[in-house]
């Protein structure tokens, strides 16, 4: 395990096992860890949407952020930074969440669903890879959201402070915070276990930089499978953990899977939208959460976009349910593709124009010097 490959497999393995353990102690089946679902639940708990079955201040999210923050401080990696196309990041985060909620899960949950026998996640996986492939084409054309610059320290502390506030509100349970009495939001492992699991995962991911989008992107773009070994570790050890801890819930098939639907086209398209946006953003929802803990305010803006997407999806009937995908959700995915692809081409055009302008100035300067 001293090798790079071994470390990635071990990191993924710990995440997979923790996910299975969280399910054993109360988290929803196939949802030991789901970043999109957890941010959606937090948005509901804060009253940003009123879907009564998905409202809970998930302490795992606080753990991810504080674990990353603590490890970054310990290793000297913490740096407040930002300013890289914040509005575009917010929009991309918004539509990433829309795609995830049409599929019913983030890319990490997609892997965990596969590890518990949910074959509906296969079409989601294919869609995710196709979306990542499309995103790569934009990268090849020169897509970039620009460089971040140093930001005030106070800005970098935004998410760690919010993470602490979530824990305080969870424990204090004031009347203005919403808690589900049924459905996925009512299913939760003990808060201390969930927080501890999040802290461990946050610290590990801050060091390894593991990212679901990065794993597939690098494998396709540069034939580098470093992060893929981590994803394989998540799947393998989540499968093992489910067989050990949750065997009664293990079921291979398409029908009757928990918090899932078998509208295969929309599983594909939802995750394809998530794949494109994750590549353009430079990371999946889990990676964005870890970056936010390190002081990256661009990731903070992305997370705000995710939460806004979750609130909008449940307030306006965009999110799927185990019964399938409604008309509003289908329209939202199609709109998402149009908006995201338009952003991609627009940014590429702007980058090319800027480079051409810079080249002309350089050439003009050379002529003047001559």
Automatic annotation (TrEMBL):
The chain crosses the membrane at residues 87-105, 125-145, 157-179, 185-205, 225-245, 265-286, 298-319, 331-351. Coiled coil: none annotated. Pfam families: Sulf_transp. InterPro entries: Seleno_YedE, Sulf_transp_TsuA/YedE. Keywords: Membrane, Transmembrane, Transmembrane helix. It comes from the Bacteria. This is YedE-related selenium metabolism membrane protein.
